[in-house]
Design a protein that fits this description.
With 72 residues, this protein is α+β, with helices and mostly antiparallel strands. It has one domain. The chain is 39% helix and 14% strand. It contains three helices and two strands, in the order βαβαα. Strands 1-2 form a two-stranded parallel sheet. The radius of gyration is 12 Å and the shape is elongated.
């Protein structure tokens, strides 16, 4: 694969976030997916995925945010 793409589920915090950042640093296009639920699976925070995508973009290693926005 010349341009790997990775889907990391639950990547707004913890291990998922660390995994998403490392994949982006390695050159992969990362698809962000997180409902923003608590560790108990309760509630939602709809902006969790968007915030994670923006954090990866700010790091300078993520995909171009305009392109990323279409997946949020």
């Amino acid at each position: 694969m010349t341009e790997p793409a990775c889907l990391v589920v639950g990547d707004a915090n913890g291990l998922g976030k660390a995994t998403a950042f490392e994949l982006a640093r390695s050159g992969a296009n990362v698809v962000v997916s997180d409902l923003g639920t608590s560790v108990e699976g309760e509630g939602t925070y709809p902006k969790a995925a968007e915030e994670a995508a923006r954090a990866i973009e700010t790091e300078g290693e993520g995909d171009d945010l305009e392109r990323t926005d279409q997946y949020l």
